[in-house]
DNA sequence: ACCTGAACACCGTTCAAGT
DNA sequence: ACCTGAACACCGTTCAAGT
């Protein structure tokens, strides 16, 4: 009789329903004879991703690293999509971030965002795989709790605190994500970029062409710091209750 | 003797070198007998994407729409990657945006960003395919020229203007991108989300659990407007020369 | 000269057959 | 009962054979 999706037989990997089902089913999953575990699959997948690139992340290749066939992986995960979701959450949770010491909420927000950015940049390979759907896994939840704690302690009301947290987190992930496929820019790539901007004059885009040098010089580190500083300036106007 | 990549035989689709090579080779590409053109391929691809989803965007399926075989597409594009890059730039360029009327740079920035967001939301299917690499195609370049024009006219120095443009554009695209895989949230999905947040109490995350309702209620429209307002507040502090 | 069917080297996933 | 080789239904891309 239900017309919602609560009884959908197969929730999409990464969705709230999927994570919930996962908590419920959290059976210890009796040790298999062959010694293959979810942990080993995730480790193997991360290695494939880092060493061979995104295109190489196939069930067959991961299985190869574990000296078995692709079919064997299906005893531990239901699909390749699940593997990706679990891998992303796993990597997001890796940094045993030492608690952030700072007296000021602005400083704590900035350091938290920089920590996340630094961590993501160290794991560039997984960044393109991150979607909002995956940012509700256990690792993301732990990060949320910590940020929420200090924003509330600093006098923000819960609604504003959550909005600030979401905005900064999404901004940080997104900045890394949009730059991740460009990779580290070589001098040659930068000069190609300058040439491309300069060439736009031929299509009547004189301003883009005139400032080709500045566009080519644009650094995503700078953009991140600039945007983060602007956001935090903006948040001060929205503080509640005002510090008067 | 060159140790840079300028003579790399096959630049990656979407890279500056690739776009540059495309401008140079801009031969009119003599009409084929069968009437298949790049234009028709892009239109067919967009239809496949919108009607059948991301997984259906295969060379075979696009070719089917044009009553031919996959091999025939390779006379017009070099690879599937090229198709995706061209499709994304094509869609970004679609809106014949009527020039934005506003007296204030803040208002113009806000309307430009909202226009872009609205346009992307109307073409959700292509959003996950956007990367920074594609945002240097001809359509993006045209948008850049327009934004740059009014920021410079409003007294920003070129470096700041470019930074503001890049930050707002990336923020806007990224916000849509992170939410795009969640799709329109149904009441059921929202209640699942609330349940997931509420369940975090069992893992010691009491703040996340206590505010489950607020997290589940979080709207990406609100986040977008909140972040955009905060960014623009922040930009005012960085204006150069100051309006004194 | 142009076009494309058929083939190649892959995929994710399933399941019958083995242990 | 558990595991997995082999098969199925797909991919993107190539190229020899056709027109």
What are the defining features of this structure?
Arc Repressor Mutant, subunit A; DNA-binding; homodimer; Tetracycline Repressor, domain 2; mainly alpha; 12 helices; about 240 residues; disordered C terminus
Structure summarized in a few sentences:
Two copies of one chain form a homodimer. Chain A is mainly alpha-helical and 244 residues long. Chain A is built from twelve helices and no strands.
Number of strands of chain A: 0
Order of helices and strands of chain A: HHHHHHHHHHHH
Q: What oligomeric state is this? A: homodimer
Gross morphology of chain A: globular
Helix content of chain A: 55-70%
- CA-based gyration radius of chain A: 22 Å
Computed structural class of chain A: mainly alpha
Residues in β-strands, percent of chain A:
under 5%
CATH architecture of the largest domain in chain A: Orthogonal Bundle
Largest interface: A-B, 75 and 75 residues
Q: What's the pLDDT, averaged over the residues of chain A?
A: 87
- Report the CATH C-level class of the largest domain in chain A: Mainly Alpha
Q: Any idea what the CATH superfamily of the largest domain in chain A is called?
A: Tetracycline Repressor, domain 2
| Topology-level CATH name of the largest domain in chain A | Tetracycline Repressor, domain 2
- The end-to-end distance of chain A, rounded to whole angstroms, is 55 Å
**What is the number of independent domains of chain A?**
2
Q: Which consecutive residue ranges of chain A, at least 5 long each, have pLDDT under 50?
A: 1-6, 240-244
Number of helices of chain A: 12
């Amino acid at each position: 009789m239900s017309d919602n999706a609560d009884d959908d037989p197969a929730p999409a990997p990464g969705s709230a329903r999927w994570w919930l089902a996962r908590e419920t089913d959290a059976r210890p999953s009796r040790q298999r004879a062959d010694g293959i575990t979810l942990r080993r699959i995730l480790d193997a997948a991360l290695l494939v991703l880092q060493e061979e690139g995104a295109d190489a992340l196939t069930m067959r290749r991961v299985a190869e690293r574990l000296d078995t066939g692709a079919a064997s992986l299906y005893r531990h995960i239901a699909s390749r999509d699940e593997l990706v979701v679990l891998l992303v959450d796993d990597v997001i949770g890796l940094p045993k971030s030492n608690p952030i010491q700072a007296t000021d909420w602005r400083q704590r927000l900035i350091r938290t965002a920089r920590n996340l950015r630094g961590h993501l940049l160290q794991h560039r390979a997984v960044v393109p795989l991150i979607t909002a759907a995956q940012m509700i896994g256990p690792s993301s939840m732990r990060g949320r709790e910590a940020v929420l704690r200090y924003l509330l302690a600093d006098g923000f009301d819960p609604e504003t605190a959550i909005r600030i947290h979401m905005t900064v987190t999404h901004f940080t992930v997104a900045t890394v994500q949009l730059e991740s496929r460009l990779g580290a820019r070589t001098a040659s790539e930068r000069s190609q970029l300058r040439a491309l901007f300069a060439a736009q004059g031929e299509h009547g885009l004189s301003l883009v062409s005139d400032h080709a040098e500045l566009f080519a010089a644009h650094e995503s580190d700078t953009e991140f710091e600039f945007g983060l500083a602007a956001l935090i300036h903006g948040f001060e106007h929205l503080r509640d209750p005002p510090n008067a």
